From TrEMBL:
PANTHER family: 1,2-PHENYLACETYL-COA EPOXIDASE, SUBUNIT A, PHENYLACETIC ACID DEGRADATION PROTEIN PAA. The lineage of its organism: Bacteria, Bacillati, Actinomycetota, Actinomycetes, Pseudonocardiales. The gene is paaA. It comes from the Bacteria. Gene3D superfamilies: 1.20.1260.10. InterPro entries: Aromatic_CoA_ox/epox, Ferritin-like, Ferritin-like_SF, PaaA, PaaA_PaaC. This is 1,2-phenylacetyl-CoA epoxidase subunit A. SUPFAM superfamilies: Ferritin-like (SSF47240).
Length: 315
């Protein structure tokens, strides 16, 4: 028998490049450049953390939902977000990331989550507005990720997007119901829209000129559109929806531009975005503290599972 020489690093790299070029998926068994692995782990972990931290703002209203129906819908939605987190932590694990290590990085502030979840939920209308705008923005971001070059991430995104569209619809339906209700309810919706509109636009990340990783992520087909392209798509999508609801988007500069075929909109307050990323948003400390407490409270479950696994191993 003749021994077959293992492929050289150059062969592996060429294979990786070809996979990307042909729009095929990179799978866990495949060799990938270190930079690709690091970028994917960072992106997937940040996404997973966002799903898990994102349970808190709305979770705040589960015990105070105005009816059994609204409570059941909200409960289902928040549980979906937990599921999204779990798929994504599993996808990160296929790249060699360790779940416990990712959790540790989240609660010690070494990895980020979406800045949107550092805003408070002040009324039940926030549940509707989060579904409509925040889950709506998440869909704009995530639909193109169903074609991301990393297979496990792309596949988890397909199921997540289906559930996100339910989230968006339940939010819109709640707002529509409130808008058909009393004057007080309509005011509550408008007030919530005023607070969430600008932070929703920030969900797409810094402007392209200020987003140093975008070019590499696009080349690796990890990302399919730039932050500004996705933000524009979201604005164009939201304007007719706001009109259907009968709410005003809080931007006096927002108007249709026939030359561009898009809506123009006002300047985003990037200073506020940066402050929140630095940890100085209204709820940063509270969100992390809550997550840390939940992690500590779950220590006995992890210990019991480990003891059970080692007993089974002995047998
Ligand atoms: Fe989600
Ligand atoms: Fe969602």
């Amino acid at each position: 028998m003749t021994a077959v020489a293992p492929p050289s690093e150059k062969d592996l790299e060429a294979h990786f490049e070809r996979t990307i070029e042909r729009d095929q998926r990179v799978e866990p068994r495949d060799w990938v450049p270190d930079g690709y692995r690091k970028t994917m782990i960072r992106q997937i972990a940040q996404h997973a953390h966002s799903e898990i931290i994102g349970m808190q703002p709305e979770g705040n209203w589960i015990t105070r939902a105005p009816s059994l129906r609204r409570k059941a819908i909200l409960l289902a939605k928040v549980q979906d977000e937990a599921g999204h987190g779990l798929y994504l932590y599993s996808a990160a694990a296929t790249l060699g990331a360790d779940r416990a290590d990712l959790t540790d990085k989240l609660i010690t502030g070494r990895q980020k989550y979406s800045s949107i979840f550092n805003y408070p939920t002040l009324s039940f209308a926030d549940v509707g507005v989060i579904g409509w705008l925040v889950d709506g923005a998440a869909i704009c971001n995530q639909v193109p990720l169903c074609r991301s070059s990393y297979g496990p991430y792309a596949r988890s995104m397909i199921r997540i997007c289906k559930e996100e569209s339910f989230h968006q619809r339940q939010g819109f339906e709640l707002l529509m119901t409130m808008m058909r209700g009393t004057g007080g309810q309509r005011e509550m919706v408008q007030e919530a829209v005023d607070r969430w509109w600008w932070p929703s636009l920030m969900m797409f990340g810094p402007p392209d000129a200020d987003s140093p990783n975008t070019a590499q992520s696009m080349a690796w087909k990890v990302k399919r559109h730039t932050n500004d392209e996705l933000r524009q798509r979201f604005v164009d999508m939201s304007v007719p929806q706001a009109a259907a609801l009968g709410v005003t988007l809080p931007d006096p500069e927002l108007r249709w531009n026939p030359d561009r075929g898009h809506h123009d909109f006002g300047a985003i307050d990037w200073a506020e975005f940066k402050e929140i990323l630095k940890g100085n948003g209204p709820c940063n400390a509270q969100r992390i503290e809550h997550r840390r407490r939940a992690h500590d409270d779950g220590a006995w479950v992890r210990e019991a599972a480990a003891a059970h696994a080692s007993k089974k191993g002995e047998k």
